[in-house]
Design a protein that fits this description.
- The chain is mainly alpha-helical.
- It contains six helices and no strands.
- Helix 2 runs antiparallel to helix 3.
- It is elongated.
Length: about 160
Amino acid sequence: MAHGHSDHHDAHHEHGHMHADHGSLKSYATGFILAVILTAIPFWLVMGKVFDKSSTTGFILLGFAAVQIVVHMVYFLHMNTKSEGGWSMLALLFTGMLVFIMMSGSLWVMYHLNHNMMPGMMHETETKPESISVMPMPATQSTPASSPLPAPDNMKTMPSMR
């Protein structure tokens, strides 16, 4: 009884090596329709200016983007908890966690560097010190008392340097 190459090959596939489902036409069509819907709704939200605040629109767009990523992974990349014994999903979760930590940490560091290195730039409505807001006197006037023209009421005079 000689074992042929095809017998060994067939027996190899019967040892519990489960291959991932490569999808069907129905699966791809469902994924495509969901992807189109998840693209059209955010486009309408932005072009129609549905929300007054741009930050609200941004957060909703990020939510739609996250859902679309999941749709692409499930319907086109065929990732689920059963493929490859769950290791692909575990690797995906680990990668997502690392990306979240790196992005949030980077944003946190950049915010605090900007806040601590340029504290005057953070608050645009900050009041200026009075010494900066005093208007300088014209060069022809030496002292307010010897001025031939009276000083306007809204102009602050500088003390003489005698």
